[in-house]
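Record format v2
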Amino acid sequence: MAKDIIHDAVKNALLKDNWTVTHAPYIIRVKGVQMYADLGAEKVIAAEKDGQKIVVEIKSFMGDSAISEFHTAVGQYLNYQQALEEQDPIRQLYLAISDDVYDSFFTIPFVQEAVVRHKIKLIICNIQQEVIIKWKI
Amino acid sequence: MAKDIIHDAVKNALLKDNWTVTHAPYIIRVKGVQMYADLGAEKVIAAEKDGQKIVVEIKSFMGDSAISEFHTAVGQYLNYQQALEEQDPIRQLYLAISDDVYDSFFTIPFVQEAVVRHKIKLIICNIQQEVIIKWKI
């Protein structure tokens, strides 16, 4: 599964769920930090529905090392959370992953504990059907 | 400055400061997670001095994107912290960086706030002289 496939699948799943995708990518600007050089930023989108505003960090976990990708995902999530609190505090931040990755990696107790500890909200998508399976807060 | 230069410089700076380097790399094992596939793990060392035990995550911030490397550094630090609390809670975790990177990047208010928020302890080294400039807790 290519990285772009999950990106498009999550976007389409949100559209199917009646969200309006307002920014793709959604660039988070922080004073003094060149966020345009943020290599993960291209996989971040913003969406709105019924006055709710969300930012979605999309991660495939399809690289050679799921744990390395998890380090980056956690750090990126927490840094974006910090930036959003300053700039756009009503926007809720989510990490979007596939149901396959959720079942195989996010069920590991260490990973589950990290998700709870850092209050990481998840959107779990089925990539083939391009549908949201679960919002996990 | 190559990534390996900072690794060796930090190790030599610790030796000069009378630390014994006990593990290089120091592999953190977590049940269910293949940490040997942790791409950042090669830059983690463990050291001891007078009964004190530390783990040092070394980051060069010399890639194309300091902010992307910072995401990874924060996530790796927090995941290692979580793993150490379970396995080896007396070991203190540090992030080692060069004084140049400290002065240019870690003085940015957003970055400073993240370091405080996540209680990231720093070892700041001069790479050319291979000496520890400051322990910042």
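DSSP finds four helices and six strands in chain B.
The domain at 3-136 of chain B is CATH 3.40.1350.10 (Trna Endonuclease; Chain: A, domain 1).
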